[in-house]
Amino acid sequence: MPGFPKQKVTIIGSGNWGSSIARVCAQNTIRHPDLFEREVRMWVFEEKIDGKNLTDIINEKHENVKYLPGINLGENVVAIPDVVEAAKGANVLVFVLPHQFVYKVCESLRGVLDKDCRAISLIKGLDYKNNNLLIFSEEIEKILGINCAALSGANIASEVAEEQFGETTIACRDPKDGEIFYKLFHTGYFDVNVIGDWRGLQVCGALKNVVALGAGICDGLHYGNNTKSAVIRRGLLEMRKFGKTFFGGVHTETYFESCGVADLITTCAGGRNRKVAAAFIKSGKSIDEIEKEMLNGQKLQGTTTSQEVYHFLSARNMTQEFPLMTAIYRVIYEHAPPESIALDLRTRNVKVDME
Ligand SMILES: NC(=O)C1=CN([C@@H]2O[C@H](COP(=O)(O)OP(=O)(O)OC[C@H]3O[C@@H](n4cnc5c(N)ncnc54)[C@H](O)[C@@H]3O)[C@@H](O)[C@H]2O)C=CC1
Ligand SMILES: O=C(CO)COP(=O)(O)O
């Protein structure tokens, strides 16, 4: 863009999705040399793998052997263990880390960033503070004093890394930001649509993980496809009701974007939340134990979100109005019989205003 400084991109996070999206960005900084600096910096929460720093391994092999094994990230992705060093001088920050760690990381970036820096949040979760649920892009804006857009979609990280075709949704207020983010993320296999409803997009991204736990419970019980579809449909209705009841400016159309129904379908079919919930039903162990056993350091988001949503609804005396979200929480955390997930659906339906 004429008169526009070349954008330096930093990825804040380097898990399964963080690594996969760093690869997408690294392809696009090469594709658009007029707009972006070639190098993509990636902040890595440092850990040792067989006695070696993960950052050193990534920089030597161009592969995140722990969180995205077998995938070349690109020689222009540079792993950095210090988050301040990684973010200093960046024009674009891509936040992509499990939602429970975001606040602490943002705090360490306070006062460090350039004024013209803009951010985008790929986090799927809501910020739970003082029994309130807040939108992450808005919290990042408040803490860091910069604009923050959001990206969410039906995007299983390993499939994007294998360049299988899929879609995603970006939501932002400022059309100029939308143009930059489109160029940073869109590829022939990763199809971006830009919309304005950043709240609806992030409510979908958080709540579909809870519904996916419900789909996993169905699978753990060996229920058929009809029951699982009922859970998914009721889940979608509760996602919409939750967005419209508690957050201003949420549009129904957003639920038809990749960030809505498509992400719900992909996560209920092939996501980690579904897989771990199914194993949990069969195991007799706690969900945290199963998560540790199955995910090798990757983090579930649906479990924490389920707790947060339940406590948020309880404080408002509204659990009855979200019977599926409530049943999922009780099965996972209060030893309710797993079958109650379908029983509750027979007797209680969510009331939604038709438009
Ligand atoms: N994996 C996927 O297929 C997708 C994930 N997402 C979302 O992207 C976000 C990030 O997920 P992933 O990249 O998959 O992460 P992940 O599930 O692979 O999480 C592990 C990451 O957390 C880091 N970590 C561990 N302890 C930490 C700490 N105390 N402080 C900071 N970081 C710490 C690890 O180093 C690692 O990078 C989540 O909100 C997730 O829902 C969105 C789309 C797809
Ligand atoms: O968000 C995802 C796909 O879009 C991944 O979901 P899981 O965290 O359940 O794997």
TrEMBL record:
Active site: K208
The Glycerol-3-phosphate dehydrogenase NAD-dependent N-terminal domain, residue ranges: 8-176
One Gene Ontology term of the molecular function aspect: NAD binding
Alphabetized Gene3D superfamilies for the sequence: N-(1-d-carboxylethyl)-l-norvaline Dehydrogenase, domain 2 (1.10.1040.10), NAD(P)-binding Rossmann-like Domain (3.40.50.720)
Name of this protein: Glycerol-3-phosphate dehydrogenase [NAD(+)]
Protein EC: 1.1.1.8
GO cellular component: cytosol
Root EC class: oxidoreductase
Catalytic activity field: sn-glycerol 3-phosphate + NAD(+) = dihydroxyacetone phosphate + NADH + H(+)
UniProt-annotated binding residues for substrate: K124, R272, N273
Keywords from the UniProt entry: NAD, Oxidoreductase
Binding site for NAD(+): G13, S14, G15, N16, W17, G18, F45, F101, A157, R272, K299, Q301
Leader sequence segment: none
Family according to the record: Belongs to the NAD-dependent glycerol-3-phosphate dehydrogenase family.
Domain Glycerol-3-phosphate dehydrogenase NAD-dependent C-terminal: 197-341
One BP term from GO: glycerol-3-phosphate catabolic process
